Amino acid sequence: MVKKFKKSLGQNFLRDDVVLDKISSSISLFNCNKIIEIGAGDGALTRNLLANNLPVSVIEYDRDLIPKLESEFSQFQNFSILNEDILKVDLQHLCDKNSVIVGNLPYNISSQIILKLLESRVDYQSAIFLIQKELAQRFCTNSKKSTKISLLAHFFSDIDQLFDVSPDAFTPKPKVTSTLIRIMPHKRNFKRLEQYIELKKILESCFANPRKQIKKSLIQLGVSSEKLSFKSSSRPDDLALQDYFEILDISEK
Predict the structure, then answer these.
(1) What is the pTM of this model?
(2) For 172-221, what is each residue's pLDDT tens digit?
(3) CATH for 7-188, among 3.40.190.10, 2.30.36.70, 3.40.50.150, 3.90.190.20?
(4) 107 tagged catalytic
């Protein structure tokens, strides 16, 4: 058992076997040919993943954990490990359309990891991540209000909250509840991929003052509100992705 946890790396290791089994059961492996685990930690979830008899590639940044992981899992022929920073890894070389990505993500870089996966345009079948509950709520598009991050995510994928995990399931015990989310990539906005950077700029402008009406942002973007199907008195979080596509299309004319 790892006794020293690195706060700087956001390490909170799962210790609850019931939760580990529940996470494993939530992973759909139909037509899957490879599992990629981000942040294996001390390998609590890794053993469950290896039981599926599929290749499991582990990405772990903490070099002090590598000997433990290699010692515990080197006898598995379907196990491989990469001691790299996930934010610097080229996912194109690891994933394909039949890959499933899994991870108990460090709280401090969860959003960066998810956005990297989405924006890299890499092919994968699905992703299952355990993240802070508050962040999960911001990412999901099934809430009444939009967030900048939920709109960016929805451009590439559909994200659902599966279940919450109590702080008691971890060591050390975090101060917040976690939520397991499922990310399903889609190609609905494939024709708009070249517009994504401009869309991101528009969202940054509109959400700079999220509690204010969008009217001022539209003026700054040079967009006439008369051409829009929604009211300029709306707030940024009242609008759906399709509304921002309207702004995008008018701004590019």
Answers:
(1) 0.93
(2) 899 999 999 999 999 999 999 999 999 999 999 999 988 899 999 999 99
(3) 3.40.50.150
(4) yes
